[in-house]
Task: inverse folding
């Protein structure tokens, strides 16, 4: 009975040489110090996206409010109002005629228009109601004085002339309304700055915690790199590039969503034009467009959020490396 013994084959020497040469020729596989895809990284990208979206909404809202306030100031500043009040023993029509002559003679006046008695009554109907006899009420007559482009009359002289010739007339240059609109615009800008500062603070805190978590997870590797001579700048640069990419991805997502929202809003506003809702929106916000400057500001915020994310991570890494002996 015969058995077959296994025959061992000896590898030729050149086979090992070929394998070694293949390993030498193979490109090195670079493993990033911080994993590119992780739950913490995706969560941070979502947080940055939300913060960028909120910051972009704030920027767009402030732009709309400031633009609307500027338009209102421009519209109100181009005209003044003369109010002629009825008084016993005076002819209202004569007083209105005299006030018109005085206004037209003033320099810087382009057009003067007096409201009729019926038009003046229609102005108070929304508050008093329609169908009420208003003939016995002392409803003032209004005269709208439109100013010429670049011209501004001497309101003090105009008031004196009106007082001397028409004692029941008063001039309103809408200065109080203009100051209120300026205050509203300044308040909107201040609120936007505060909200944007809070968004940046939340982003920095989120990046700091995420960086500390990444450092804690990779601390043995970081310590080995530190002990073998890797500089703090090299290690911090690895984390900075990782979080810069995350910040840019999150910022692009949030900023892109905001740009899409404003673009859709402008399209809807254009579609609602010439309707009652469109007229109300146009009266409040103009054409409801943040303009090129608004979109550029949102794009700038995307880059700013990426920079803040990268710098916050680098600062956290440098502080952590200082604790390693």
Result:
């Amino acid at each position: 009975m015969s058995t077959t013994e296994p025959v061992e084959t000896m590898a030729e020497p050149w086979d090992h040489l070929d394998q070694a040469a293949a390993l030498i020729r193979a490109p090195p596989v670079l493993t990033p110090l911080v994993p590119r895809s992780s739950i913490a990284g995706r969560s941070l990208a979502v947080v940055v996206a939300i913060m960028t979206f909120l910051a972009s909404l704030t920027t767009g809202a402030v732009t709309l409010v400031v633009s609307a306030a500027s338009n209102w100031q421009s519209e109100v500043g181009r005209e003044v109002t003369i109010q002629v009040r009825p008084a016993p023993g005076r002819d209202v029509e004569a007083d209105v005629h005299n006030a018109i002559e005085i206004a037209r003679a003033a320099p810087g006046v382009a057009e003067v228009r007096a409201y009729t008695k019926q038009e003046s009554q229609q102005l108070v109907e929304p508050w008093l109601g329609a169908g009420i006899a208003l003939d016995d009420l002392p409803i003032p007559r209004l005269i709208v004085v439109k100013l010429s482009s670049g011209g501004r009359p001497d309101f003090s002289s105009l008031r004196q002339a009106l007082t001397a010739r028409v004692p029941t007339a008063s001039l309103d240059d809408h200065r109080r309304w203009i100051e209120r609109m300026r205050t509203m615009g300044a308040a909107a800008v201040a609120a936007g700055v505060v909200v944007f500062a809070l968004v940046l603070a939340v982003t920095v805190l989120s990046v700091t915690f995420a960086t500390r978590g990444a450092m804690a997870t990779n601390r043995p590797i970081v310590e080995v790199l530190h002990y073998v001579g890797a500089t703090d700048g090299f290690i911090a640069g690895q984390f900075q590039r990782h979080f810069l990419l995350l910040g840019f991805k999150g910022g692009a997502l949030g900023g892109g969503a905001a740009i899409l929202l404003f673009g859709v809003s402008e399209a809807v506003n254009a579609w609602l034009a010439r309707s009652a809702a469109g007229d109300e929106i146009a009266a409040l916000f103009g054409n409801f467009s943040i303009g090129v400057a608004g979109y550029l500001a949102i794009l700038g915020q995307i880059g700013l959020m990426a920079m803040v994310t990268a710098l916050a991570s680098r600062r956290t890494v440098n502080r952590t490396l200082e604790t390693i002996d």
